[in-house]
Design a protein that fits this description.
It is a single chain. The protein is α+β, with helices and mostly antiparallel strands. About 35% of the residues are buried. The protein contains eight helices and 13 strands. It has a single domain, classed as Alpha-Beta Complex (phage-related protein like fold).
Length: about 300
């Protein structure tokens, strides 16, 4: 490939073209909501539920949002690729463009990485009610005590059978449907769509348990579609989770989500290329991507952790 075809303009264009394909986001939008930010830290005070309908007796009874909330501080992230001028000149096999495409794929997988770390830390990370995200003693307003952690005994926790996993998935679904909000109202009574996120060792059993008909692998996730009764389940095999004997079921068809993606600045590429001091002094070009973002816990009532013992 001639050097002219590997100009910074062509390289940056290739990066954004690949980035816009959205690789690696197969499960991310299902379990998290993206919220745009315009400051370092955002404080969310909308995590209390709106009042339920009541019979009009004695005039209106307005209720404000409860004093629930979380704060998420944006963090800067970067990735910088160094390419020598000589490599640019000599490249005839598209190796440089391949590296640029990989850089875009890594950028697309970044949300999955951040959210996976958040899910992994769910038994220690705090959510809006002051409890850990996965906890046995949640209380929100008028909800009463609730747990989104189930312990289920099976023969071999690291290698469940399809039947055992199906029972566990149904137990988690049953728990999700029973959760109440801070008004004491059912949180997920109209839920029909769920995501079952499992570690790699659970793939075969989970796919069989859900009667999976489609399996698609993209980036760091495998998605399978299946159904039980009137419910629709999506199976995400998350290789980033450090789990071997547990999995999580998310409720994914509501307007609120279990996790939050906060973005202050979208992924942006800058270059020090033709005519730059880097080229003059070091005979190299630099292609750097940056973003300002972070993740946080949303509604714990939209997630149920199943621990096999």
């Amino acid at each position: 490939m001639p050097l002219s075809a590997l100009s910074s303009r062509a390289i940056i264009g290739e990066f954004y073209d690949r980035l816009n394909q959205g690789l690696g986001k197969i499960w991310v939008p299902k379990v998290s909501r993206e919220i745009k930010s315009n400051q370092e830290t955002e404080n969310y005070k909308w995590l209390g539920s709106t009042p339920a309908m009541r019979e009009w007796i004695g005039g209106r009874q307005p209720r404000g949002l409860r004093d629930f909330g979380v704060s998420i501080t944006n963090r800067p992230y970067e990735s910088t690729l160094e390419i020598s001028v000589d490599d640019l000149r000599r490249d005839k096999t598209d190796q440089i463009m391949t590296r640029i495409q990989e850089q875009a794929d890594r950028a697309n997988a970044h949300w999955a990485r951040l959210l996976s770390l958040l899910i992994d830390a769910g038994e220690t990370g705090l959510c809006y009610d002051g409890k850990t995200f996965f906890a046995t003693d949640h209380v929100s307003g008028d909800s009463g005590p609730q747990s989104n952690v189930l312990s289920i005994n099976i023969v071999t926790p690291a290698t469940p059978t399809a039947s055992e996993l199906q029972d566990s998935i149904l137990e988690a679904t049953q728990a999700l449907l029973a959760y109440k909000d801070d008004e004491g109202e059912p949180m997920n009574e109209t839920a029909l769509e769920f995501m079952v996120m499992v570690p790699p060792g659970y793939l075969k059993a989970a796919a069989t348990a859900l009667g999976a008909t489609v399996i698609e692998q993209t980036g760091n996730a495998i998605l399978a579609l299946g159904g039980l009764g009137g419910f629709v389940y999506r199976l995400a095999v998350n290789v980033r989770l450090n789990w071997t004997t547990q999995f999580v079921v998310f409720c994914t068809d509501g307007v609120v989500t279990p996790l939050i993606r906060q973005t202050e600045q979208d992924v942006k590429m800058d270059a020090m290329a033709e005519g730059s001091s880097e080229e003059f002094m070091h005979r190299r070009h630099l292609y750097g991507i940056t973003t300002l973002r972070n993740v946080g816990y949303g509604y714990w009532q939209k997630a149920c952790l199943v621990k096999h013992t």
